[in-house]
Amino acid sequence: MRELPHWHTASAQGPRKHNADAVGAYAASGGTGIVFALADGVGDHPKAAHAARTAASAAARAPAEKGAVEAVLAAQRAVLQLGGAGDCVLVVAVQSGEGYGIAWLGDARAYAWDGYTVRQVTKDHTLAQYFRDHDQPVTPRMEHVVTTSVRTAGAHEIGAATIKTGGLLLTSDGVHKTLSGPTMLDILGMPDRAATELVRTAISLGGSDNATALVVDPPRADRTTEKFRVAA
């Protein structure tokens, strides 16, 4: 059985009435690895929170050997079975070799983190990103309008990427839309405290949303080589 990575997570409600963020992680006995999931409910109400918890749990319980896209589809099936109107966005990371397969819907993000550099590997499914891709002006409101979600997306709309490093950061937009890349990089250098500090700092800097982070520590770095730390 593959050795499981060391990981930690934190979440804060912030100024919202409900914390509609959720995380999940699961490694099946005798399985091939671990599945991580972070979901962010669409809206500030109990149905959004329920959808996020359902999606994160279903995605994390999906068989790791089937990959990240199948984990997102499992989350979608679970949310659709709820009925009602609750919805969420989602990012999933499935351990694959020394890295991770990534799949996502909406604006939950995954970053590669190797102990020295942090790099965003997902691309937001938002109206703002769509306009940027088409060289059109963007307004602040567009940053918060998602173009895909767990309840509504087709399978062909699921984003997919890979991370080759052993470290990983998953965030809800309450973290990454408040903190800059260099700030996140500095905080990631705090062993066992990074997730808590990412969330605490985002809220303290005026974040107006729920803030959630899941940090998977990279393997122990080579102490004989000095490297510069870079956020991209």
TrEMBL record:
Domain PPM-type phosphatase: 6-218
InterPro entries membership: PPM-type-like_dom_sf, PPM-type_phosphatase-like_dom
Gene3D superfamilies according to UniProt: PPM-type phosphatase domain
Residues forming coiled coils: none
Signal peptide range: none
The name this protein goes by in its record: Serine/threonine protein phosphatase
